[in-house]
Write a structure and sequence with these properties.
Elements (H helix, E strand, L loop, with lengths): L20 E5 L5 E2 L15 E5 L1 H7 L1 H12 L36 E3 L1 H6 L4 E6 L9 H17 L6 E5 L3 H13 L3 E6 L5 H9 L3 E5 L3 H11 L5 E3 L5 H7 L1 H9 L7 E5 L4 H15 L8 E7 L4 H7 L26 H10 L3 E5 L1 H12 L7 H16 L7 E6 L7 H8 L20 H11 L2
Parallel strand pairs: 5-13, 6-7, 6-9, 7-8, 10-11, 10-13, 11-12
Antiparallel strand pairs: 1-2, 1-3, 4-5
Length: about 450
């Protein structure tokens, strides 16, 4: 096997407990240095992953990892104040701290929803609020790693003029924020008229060159892949495994917040499908380090209008059959040809995973139902919550189980669609509709309405 790693980067030759990482093809195992600007295997065109030398991670030991991660969680120092970089040895162990660009990502709350759990006869339901982040989505977790890596490459002399991405909204917002903080130009390709105003304005505000194309996300992705054949324009989509490195810390934070245990199930919405493989990578490292003693099962939740993984799952997880994704309230996962499909299939098989789908009515009602317990769920979290409700009703998730739902974005980024739900402007039965009551400015009218409404 050809290998372009330097001697110090090769796995199995670690001196002491020095941590090492490299790029590796998930299909043929070909290895490449992290210093390479490369997104697919040169030998077989397979997707790449960032792999870590397992020996020093295992030998460090459970108690030292617990002590290290917990002390960093309490730190305000750079870069440990980031929930991602507090796990640096498991992310990019070789990067110089001066090249790390962080905007305080990670450390997001895991909110228990006991009343909802009781309704479903479950022991525990927790919602990991990844949208409580700098740009309002979990994409910040991956982008801090990717942009920091690009900053390191530029410092070492790699000629990179700009970083580019195709996006349904959240990726572009994260890229624009982190790259502008690092002083790196960005180019964003967006599908015209298919994202919320909140998502559109973020990259504009951060100074990105925003190209609004008359196509969908898959069309934008084709163009950005062609553009980034020029190695001076760096690809920021999740085809790039550096993104997944940051996103995998969701698994580590989740286990840490549960006292170094894992729930029976983790449910995550899936679009381009890098997120499910990221979860898997995090859980693998947790088990290698001795911090957990079992894996959770994983469910990927998709909108019925953009469900290529669900269709493949129903057909036995064979080769992907791309589809034309249809309009969905969960616009960030409106993707018909997901780049990370092979990674997702591997994770589903390893974690005894399932795939469920949700109609527009199911996802909107699920989000609104759980909003009643004090949350403000975006439509993608609604997809995951609808999948939980359906899997519990079918008995796939057993009574008494514990479940964590990954909320991938902040509901405020989708305020228009949430308002439309409660105002009855969506073409669906809004079971939890709660429209404002218009009254004259008259105390008697107000008292009468309170008498009708309050117990």
């Amino acid at each position: 096997m050809k290998n372009d790693l330097t001697e110090s980067e090769r796995p199995g030759v670690a001196s002491g407990l020095k941590y090492h990482a490299w790029l590796q093809c998930i299909e043929c195992g070909e290895q490449y240095s992290l210093s390479r600007v490369i997104y697919r295997c040169e030998r077989c065109d397979g997707l790449l992953s960032v792999e870590h030398d397992p020996e020093p991670i295992r030998l460090t030991g459970r108690e030292r990892w617990k002590s290290l991660f917990e002390s960093r969680m309490a730190s305000f120092e750079h870069p440990w104040s980031s929930g991602v970089w507090g796990k640096k040895e498991w992310v990019l162990p070789g990067i110089d701290d001066q090249h790390i660009t962080t905007l305080g990502e990670g450390r997001t709350p895991l909110l228990s929803v006991p009343a909802f759990a009781r309704e479903l006869d479950l022991e525990y339901v927790g919602i990991k609020q990844c949208g409580i982040s700098h740009t309002g989505s979990f994409k910040d977790l991956g982008m801090t790693v990717l942009v920091s890596h690009v900053r390191s490459l530029i410092a070492s002399g790699t000629p990179i003029r700009a970083v580019a991405c195709a996006s349904t909204g959240d990726t572009s917002a994260a890229l624009a924020a982190y790259a502008s903080a690092a002083g790196i130009p960005t180019v964003v390709f967006l599908p015209a008229g298919k994202i919320s105003m909140a998502q559109l304005v973020q990259p504009i505000a951060c100074g990105s060159l925003v190209l609004s194309l008359d196509t969908d996300f898959d069309g934008c992705m084709e163009i950005v892949r062609a553009i980034t054949l020029d190695p001076s324009i760096y690809l920021a989509n999740s085809m790039n495994p550096l993104r997944i490195e940051g996103q995998k810390t969701v698994s580590v934070e989740l286990a840490q917040q549960l006292g170094w245990k894992v729930p029976d199930w983790v449910i995550i919405p899936g679009g381009n499908l890098g997120n499910v493989s990221a979860l898997g990578q995090g859980f693998r490292l947790l088990r290698l380090a001795g911090l957990i003693d079992r894996y959770p099962r994983i469910c990927v939740a998709q909108s019925e209008n953009a469900n290529p993984l669900y269709r493949s799952y129903r057909a036995g997880l064979g080769p992907l059959v791309p589809m034309q994704a249809q309009k969905t309230l969960a616009s960030a996962i409106q993707i018909g040809n997901p780049v990370s499909y092979p990674r997702a299939v591997r994770a589903l098989k390893e974690f005894d995973g399932v795939v469920e789908q949700a109609t527009e009515e199911e996802l909107a009602n699920a989000a609104a139902r759980v909003d009643r317990f004090g949350l403000f769920n975006d439509p993608h979290t609604g997809v995951a919550l609808a999948a939980l409700i359906k899997l519990r009703a079918a008995g796939t998730i057993a009574a008494g189980a514990s479940v964590a739902v990954i909320s991938t974005a902040h509901g405020l980024k989708f305020a228009d669609s949430k308002a439309a739900y409660h105002e009855g402007r969506l073409d669906l039965e809004a079971k939890y509709k709660n429209a404002p009551v218009e009254l004259p400015a008259n105390i008697e009218a107000v008292r009468a309405e309170l008498g009708r409404r309050l117990p």
